[in-house]
What we know:
Largest sheet: 5 strands, antiparallel
Oligomer: single chain
Number of helices: 1
Mean pLDDT: 88
Structural class: mainly beta
Radius of gyration: 16 Å
Strand content: 35-45%
Low-confidence stretches: none
Amino acid sequence: MPLTRDRIGDIHEQLLGQQKVPVAxxxxxxxxxxxxxxxxxxxxxxxxxxxxxGKAVHYAIDGANNQSGANGDKQVTVMTIGVALVDKGxxxxxxxxxxxxxxxxxxxxxxxxxxxxxxxIIAVRNRLVAVQxx
Length: 134
């Protein structure tokens, strides 16, 4: 059967390593934040917290302020595959090639109490770390 509509859209975004996800009530996601998901599957700022254990960690490429909204009132686009730039914190050039974990929505760590891996450190420059996601 021939196509009757364009095939671009959600599938195209996923192939590019991007996905729109609903934001949790009360959450404010900033551009460039590390994000994860609450128990109900709504996007929240990443934390090394037991409530997010085992949930994926992604990188917000746009922002959404849902502080006064209900679950899903706002959406944010996240990067699921690609290279994210994050403040380096205590990461040093010798950490290149090691696993990076989300400590907060703006902080990386080399270890995690609650299974918060984001990807592999591929470069450390000035105040930023490049992390290969996916």
